Amino acid sequence: MSAGCGPIPLPPSRQWRFGRCSCCDRQTLVAPGPQIHTVDGRAVTLPYCVDGFERAARYVHRVGLRASVRG
């Protein structure tokens, strides 16, 4: 993700299902997270819980702050 990314929105309610979260490994409600590009060029989507979406949004925010301080 680049520093210019905005916040990561929560998916609509119809995309949530019961499953295992990729960030915390809990059985909970999950939805498709942001796309991640692999080394071989494929794009995968990992299931995230609500906490995972919040963590990802904080991470993107911190990256943006660091880029603005260094830039």
Output the radius of gyration. 13 Å
Describe the global form.
globular
Distance between the termini: 17 Å
User: What's the helix count?
Assistant: 1
Structural class: alpha+beta
Q: Provide the spatial order of strands within the biggest beta sheet.
A: 1-2-3
Write the layout of secondary structure elements.
Blueprint (H helix, E strand, L loop, with lengths): L16 E4 L6 E11 L5 E6 L1 H21 L1
Antiparallel strand pairs: 1-2, 2-3
How would you characterize the overall build of this protein?
The chain contains one helix and three strands. The chain starts with 16 loop residues before the first strand and ends with a helix. The chain is of the alpha+beta class and 71 residues long. 13% of the residues are buried. Helices cover 30% and strands 30% of the residues. The chain has one helix at 50-70; strands spanning 17-20, 27-37, 43-48. It is globular and about 40 Å long. The protein has a three-stranded antiparallel beta sheet.
Write a brief structural summary:
The chain is an alpha+beta fold. Helices cover 30% and strands 30% of the residues.
Top keywords for this entry?
about 70 residues; three-stranded antiparallel β-sheet; 1 helix
